[in-house]
């Protein structure tokens, strides 16, 4: 572990300083993940990251670090928009999918109306058929009497 005479964390190694037991980076940037820290340092600067981590409750620091790493990666990939590019892409996808959903709902209710209509027509046809059968039966009976 850091500060115990072992290997310094990725941050202290890159910044060439002694890694103490109080090192705020040590729990989140182990020596074997040098690239992770290098990226965050390049985008935010080590002292800013240190300040940010100190302002965050210890229980939330791991989440803060993964967020910073994610944002740094996005910023390196897209220096202009960073995470915003991903966010607006996803927002566009959401509104596109919402539109498709609304269309599907409209189509469903149109089909339900059509189905209702067809059922009613089917009933009308069945009734008419029934009437014809009755009429036929009546005619047959009449011809038997005459
Ligand atoms: Zn350290």
Automatic annotation (TrEMBL):
Domain (LOB) ranges: 7-108
Pfam families linked to this entry: LOB
UniProt similarity note: Belongs to the LOB domain-containing protein family.
Protein's recorded name: LOB domain-containing protein
Organism whose genome encodes this protein: Leersia perrieri
